[in-house]
Amino acid sequence: MNTQEIIAYSVAGILAVSLVGLVAFIVAGIAIGRRLTNVLDQTESFLKNIQEEVAGTLQEAQVALERIEKLSQSTDALIRDDLGPTLQGTRAIVTNVERTTGAVRAAVEGVGRIAAVVSAVAEPAYIATATGKAVKTSSNKIGLLAYGVRMGLNALLHDGTSKQQPISRRESNGTSGQ
After folding, report:
1. Does residue 144 register a pLDDT over 80?
2. pLDDT digits over 22-56, tens only?
3. What is this structure's pTM?
4. For residue 140, how many C-alpha atoms fall within 13 Å in the half-sphere facing its CB?
5. What does the angle CA 137 – CA 135 – CA 123 come to, to the nearest 5 degrees?
6. Cα separation of 167 and 111, whole Å?
7. pLDDT per residue over 92-114, tens digit each?
8. Less crowded by CB within 10 Å, the N or C end of the chain?
9. What confidence score (pLDDT) does residue 131 get?
């Protein structure tokens, strides 16, 4: 064989190997293309399923939000219409209790002041004399009664925070300053 034939066979061999390699690449490309098409189809169907599930979940969430909104509105109406007046009534009751407690406290303080005055003048002879003088005349009896009524009304009508005037010796022995 001569050199030209060797070169021709070599070129033909290279050409044949190249052609076989090209065919192999084409076949591999087609197979890969089909696989990619299958993967893309599966991905597309998976995404459609996810989209449908998300849409269903969003619809359920929307329905739940609408129910929550209705519940919120009914709760707001309940609080406004039913609990509001109840709370106002309760506040009024608590205010009255506070006033009554203040009035009782003021009455107790008044009694304490009277007791202090009485203990200051606790000599038996002085008490007997003062009591005898206070009870002898009807005007003194009325004065004592009016003073007692005044102290009771003051205790009920005031909230207990105001300071009452101390009882003078003249008021404590049953005579009025009028």
Report:
1. no
2. 999 999 999 999 999 999 999 999 999 999 999 99
3. 0.34
4. 14
5. 135
6. 10
7. 888 888 888 888 888 778 777 77
8. C
9. 59
Please report the pLDDT score of residue 177 as a whole number.
Answer: 45
57/62 Cα distance (integer angstroms): 9
Q: Which amino acid is at 35?
A: R
Spatial distance between the Cα atoms of 163 and 105, rounded to a whole number of angstroms = 11
Q: Write out the two tokens for 132.
A: 């005898």
Alpha carbon distances (Å) from 39 to 27, 47, 63, 145: 18, 12, 36, 106
Contact 102, 159 (CB under 8 A): yes
Q: Is 110 within 8 Å of 163 (Cβ atoms)?
A: no
Backbone angles phi, psi at 137, to 5 degrees: -105, 150
Rg (CA), the chain: 54
